[in-house]
Amino acid sequence: MWERLAHHLEDSRLHLRPNIPSITFKKEADFLQGRFTVNYPLSFNAELFVSSKGFKDASFHPSFSPNVPFYLNVTSDKTYTAAFNFKLPNEKLPEKLRNNTFKFSLSGDQSNYLSSVFALTHQNKYSISLALRPCIIGGFYHGENVGVEFAYSLAEEQPSMSAMFNKRFDRTEVSLMASMYGEGTALITSDFDKVRISSYLRANPFTFDSTATFGIQIPFGNSFGNISFSIPSKTIRFEAALNLQYEEDKKSGITVYWPFSPNTIKSVLA
Predict the structure, then answer these.
(1) Are 202 and 183 within 8 A, CB to CB?
(2) N or C, fewer C-beta in 10 Å, the chain?
(3) What is the fold, at CATH topology level, of the domain defined by 2-269?
């Protein structure tokens, strides 16, 4: 369920999109994939990850997926993240404990602040994790259509819990997420013959904060064009992705992303 949810969030092109212009170069080989993103003002983000056999679409969401064995992310502000996923050998485990995935990730920044996460996942449904610096205990349950995640920070003595839902109804996919602190989001995407229409809504009744984004995506071959509009920021986002297929499933591509808002226009003209 988590892979479907992550894929839905990314595929809609409405969620977690940076509010700065950028251009992304992508290269896909037999088992290695890489992306290099240049942002305006000048900064970059470089990613490298290993593809997993039979798992293509969601392999572009390595931070979410337990099926990507290796992932590396380096940015121009000297932050980095490295994640490793591997399955424990089934023949050495009791039958009830088989099909587990062990994940280890390491991240840091220019001040040499180092943090790590250890996670053990069983059948992609149940997981328990331990984060160091800061120390956080967490876990999740992901069923067919629903999921629950929890975390507890020992340093802040602060609990956190969230719930999520993902289901497809014919041509429409719905994803819902809510946290114990009032944050709620809804993503609804409908696929038609030659267009995809998406709506992303976020609201928090405790802080009286809300946003809404509406987008239209038009595919053409292995490429697509996307336009979206957000309120109350009055931001219009244009995105065009050109993915060139050279042989079989090996692809290279270029994605151009440009948001237009009052603040963005002022920064570009300054």
Answers:
(1) yes
(2) C
(3) Porin (2.40.160)
Of 265, 266, 267, 240, nearest to 254 by C-alpha is 240
**Positions of the chain with pLDDT lower than 50, given as ranges:** 54-60, 62
**pTM score:** 0.80
Spatial contact of 91 and 102, defined as CB atoms under 8 Å apart: no
47-61 pLDDT, tens per residue?
Answer: 888 765 544 443 445
Tokens of residue 3, six digits: 């892979």
Q: How far, CA to CA in Å, does 197 sit from each of 5, 14, 58, 185, 213?
A: 17, 11, 20, 17, 11
Smallest CA-to-CA distance from 226 within 188, 262, 255 is with 255
Q: How far apart are CA 191 and CA 219, in angstroms?
A: 11
Domain boundaries, the chain: 2-269
Arithmetic mean of pLDDT over the chain: 82
